[in-house]
Structure formats: structure tokens, C-alpha cells
Design brief:
Blueprint lengths: L12 E3 L5 E4 L1 H13 L6 E8 L2 E9 L1
Parallel strand pairs: 2-4
Antiparallel strand pairs: 1-2, 3-4
């Protein structure tokens, strides 16, 4: 998951194993911010949700 400070204004997203980038819709951005603030683990993320084109509607986000 990208957590670069410069990208916070434009939103968060994730790169998939097949090198696609999926941007989070608004609720996913909120979940990403909350997870990053409460965890020291920031290398891997487990996300479930519904993909729609180049975005993902996040239903669950957990840093691992």
C-alpha cells in the first residue's frame, strides 16, 4: 500500500501481484489512514473488496 505523504491528498491504493494499481474509493482511503496511524507494520496489506475498473471498494483492510 502506498503511504507516501505526498499522495495522501489524492488518495491511497494498492499494487496487485500482477502489477496493476487499484485506487481506493473514499471509504477505503479512510480505512487506510486509520490502519497506518495505529500500526507499525507497513510492508504488506490484506485487502478484500470489490474491484471496479481501476478502483477497489474496500470492505476490509489489515496491515500485516
Amino acid at each position: 500500500m502506498c503511504h507516501d505523504a505526498r499522495l495522501r491528498k489524492s488518495g491511497y491504493g494498492v499494487s496487485t501481484a500482477d502489477n496493476k494499481y487499484l485506487a481506493f474509493v473514499a471509504a477505503g482511503n479512510d480505512q487506510a489512514v486509520a490502519a497506518l496511524k495505529t500500526s507499525k507494520k507497513k510492508e504488506k496489506v490484506k485487502i478484500t473488496g470489490e474491484v471496479d475498473g481501476e478502483t477497489i471498494k474496500v470492505s476490509s483492510l489489515k496491515l500485516q
